[in-house]
Amino acid sequence: MNPDKTIDNTQFSLLEKTTKKSQLFQKIFFFILGVSSLSGWNAILTGLSYFADQYDGRNVYFILPIPNFISLCLIGLFLPRISSMLSMFFRIVWSLVILCFLLFLLPIIALEMHSTLGYWLCLTTIFIMGIFSSLQQNSSIGMSGILGPEYVNVFFIGTGASGTIITIFRLISLAAINSEKSIFLYIGIAVLWNIGAIIMYFAFTKTPQYRKIIQAHKKGRQSVLVHDQIITEDEPDNVIQNDSVISDIINSDIFNQINQIQDQNQQIENQVVNKNKDQISIEKMNVIQTLIWINKVAFPIPLLIVILYIQTFMMFPGVAFQKSFDSDFINWGQCFISLGYNMGDTLGKLLGGNRKLFNQQILIGLFLVRFVFYYTYIEIAKGNLDPNWISYFNTFLFGILNGFITTGYMILGPEKTNEGFVKEKIGFVSGFSLCLGIMFGSFLALPFSNISK
Known about the structure:
By secondary structure, the protein is mostly helical. It contains 18 helices and 3 strands. It has 2 domains: 21-204 and 286-448, Growth Hormone, Chain: A (Up-down Bundle); 226-282, no CATH class. It has helices at 3-46, 48-54, 60-63, 65-82, 88-112, 116-147, 149-176, 183-204, 208-222, 236-247, 252-274, 287-298, 301-315, 330-351, 360-369, 372-382, 388-412, 420-444, and strands at residues 223-226, 229-232, 280-281. A 3-stranded antiparallel sheet has the order 2-1-3.
């Protein structure tokens, strides 16, 4: 038996185990990022009745989410441009720290200040929360896009699990506490997820995946666009190719001619990179230029994400919650509807991790099939499909398709390019598209607001 071979096999086995542990840690990190990106807002949404009690007579259920939509969309719009101005540490860690503080501040303002001033302070706090939530969420989407589809999948499974976790605790609080002040329980859970993500971020900075993200950022700073073509200062592939061509040349005259041609070509390339009036520094592109460029690269994914979420939020939660329940069961019934959607959404995102199950055409087909739910939701709201289980199952299926299609689009977007820093910007734009679709869908749901009457 060869002892050297045994040592080599042992070292390889240890390295393989270390790599697997590292990959598991990183996936857990992105899962927690996914949970934390929505847990705070899910806590606020779950506890909206608390704010309705504090500000009696105001349309809290409709007005309170609006500042969040506005700030999410504004930051999502500008993030492809401002991301180079803000470090990844600030966009992830400091955003989570500030969100922890604001999450506790918001219900305290509502508890202590029942006046108009208190109401407007709540709206302002929610607007600021949206800013930092958008920074953290969209930056995480961009990071996962750089690393590959499995990380995108894990992140979005986390976003689905976030709603499921908060809803389960809502059911527990209904059974055990039965108080609207249980919002502090939901917020405490959200803050714990945020703290977990912050702690894991510092460990993540020591991994190869983190270095891959940093290298992508570095290449982005060195790159320019010339007629939609990316040119980077460091082009090792071209050098290797030229060396291999030169090594095959035997005739010295031909060699000299080739050298002259290469010198001329190099001068032309330098002029293109440094002096051509059509070149645009990717880092210094304005918002409009960045959006146009990324939408051209990723088309039609950003548009498909917008219309998917318009479709979803025109029915859920507004029309879904118009299902009639007995007065003593309404809170339970709406929680079960919400749980059905979130569990379905999480399951759909889990299935979306299997790349063999979808392509763009399949996802568009499933999107069109979802319009069947407009009929079922409206019939349930009108009382024509009255059994409770039909409402729960209907929403569960609606959630599965939403999660599956979302994950599919978020994976397909970064696949449109091989450049890591472009994948990240596609992630930013995809996150903006998602928020824009939610906002439009919520407003377009208003004509259905009294459909049950």
